[in-house]
Amino acid sequence: MRLRTKFNLALVLACVSGIIAATGLTYQAAKSSALQGIKNEIAIIHANALAVSKYTSTEVAPLLSDNSDILFLPHTVPSFSAQTVFSYFNSSFPDYYYKEAVLNPTNPGDLAEDWEADLINQLRADQSLDQISIIRKTDTGRVFAVAFPLTVTDQSCLECHSDPSLAPAAMIDLYGSENGFGWEIGETIGAQIIYTPIAQADKRVIDLVLVIMLVILAAFTVVILLVNLMLSRIVLKPVAVMSEISQQVSMGDFSAREYIKKGSDEISLLSTSFNRMRRSLDSAMRLLDD
Question: Is the pTM of this model over 0.85?
Fold first, then answer.
């Protein structure tokens, strides 16, 4: 195997190893960054829902409380307002999801699905958890879902959800007295469940990895070309010339020209030593002929 072939083989192996290592590191970093972006989206949706809920309870509900004995208005319920506002957002971003899922809701529309109930029960089992994250498949693709606990912390909630006899008559007329009661202070009765799609994030990760791979491949290609050029000019060409001269000298032809490479590198020193050896051999042969 020729020297150039060996050298290029080593460079190619280094290139492949570098690309594999860089691709792995880039993928992990890009994946982590994409996941953080998804978490930020969920945090924004969650903060918006909390803001709408607070606005409803502090600004809207007091204005409509005078008619609560005659007509129960769901618009005064914070969870109803938050989910209604999100429904308008959802019309523009249909892959996003927000629901205040409850195990025993007053409004049947808030009843937790099986997978939502599993998350709620995990939150109920460990009160120290402030959220649970999962990745699940939907009809539109994989999503990153987060569940935040809905815990009864305000005594005013029990006015409607402790015992049917204490609940507003208008609410009983609207929803009945079978569901949404028996709640207690400190109990986690449901969860704010939000999910966002991760398909676009996955695509961005793959695109970034491909770009990094192409950049590294281009960089290694340039390096290999430059190294080969320098190898030819500094090493291979001088060695080839000295090899040709040594072939002639070994056949007894001392008329071959001397090769002198200017400089102070190893090849230059080798050419000087080679010429000195050649002259010494020529002198020795002349002495033998005499």
Answer: no
